[in-house]
Amino acid sequence: MRPEKSILGRKMRCGPLCRFLWLWPYLSYIEAVPIRKVQDDTKTLIKTIVTRINDISHTQAVSSKQRVAGLDFIPGLHPVLSLSRMDQTLAIYQQILTSLHSRNVVQISNDLENLRDLLHLLASSKSCPLPRARGLESFESLGGVLEASLYSTEVVALSRLQAALQDMLRRLDLSPGC
């Protein structure tokens, strides 16, 4: 049983509606994060990831356009980058980087997760139904390729990721579709 409060000789019970009405003035001052801020944060995070990749010295050795046999599962650039395509691409890169177990890519993988969250915020601001993208479905079968060439996979993946991120950065200014 709730404690009763006496106000001017009257007994008063404050139910959920009363509590809500009491909080209403505070709730009305809460503002949503402006979408421009989310877009700016997304661009800043992309630039940060590109800088992290640049700081890894061995990634400068390979062009992102160079074809490497056996590493065709690592995505390249796409002509049309919608928000859902960006999320799918980042999910694949995140899956690849996580499987490498390299100290160089742990923070980049975490940054990709945060970047995907920001893309989901951008999508929701446009009322885009953006389901959480998954990585490669046949990724388990690539375990042998990854074990045989961890270094090459890391270099190619980071090089292509860097190019993809720079392309995403350019396309975010064009307000990509769903």
Structure description:
A two-stranded antiparallel sheet has the order 1-2. The protein has 6 helices and 2 strands, in the order ββαααααα. The radius of gyration is 24 Å and the shape is elongated. The protein has one domain: Growth Hormone, Chain: A (Up-down Bundle). The longest helix is centred in the last third of the chain and has 23 residues, at 150-172. It is 56% helix and 3% strand. It has 178 residues and is mainly α.
What does the secondary structure layout of this molecule look like, with pairings?
Elements: E1 5-7, E2 10-12, H1 16-27, H2 35-55, H3 83-100, H4 106-125, H5 143-148, H6 150-172
Antiparallel strand pairs: 1-2
The major sheet is characterized as:
2 strands, antiparallel
CATH topology (level 3) name? Growth Hormone, Chain: A
**Radius of gyration, Cα only, in angstroms?**
24 Å
Helix-strand string: EEHHHHHH
Brief rundown of the structure:
By secondary structure, this protein is mainly alpha-helical. It has 6 helices and 2 strands. The protein has helices at residues 16-27, 35-55, 83-100, 106-125, 143-148, 150-172; strands spanning 5-7, 10-12.
Characteristic terms for this protein:
178 residues, two-stranded antiparallel sheet, 2 strands, single chain, Growth Hormone, Chain: A, mainly alpha
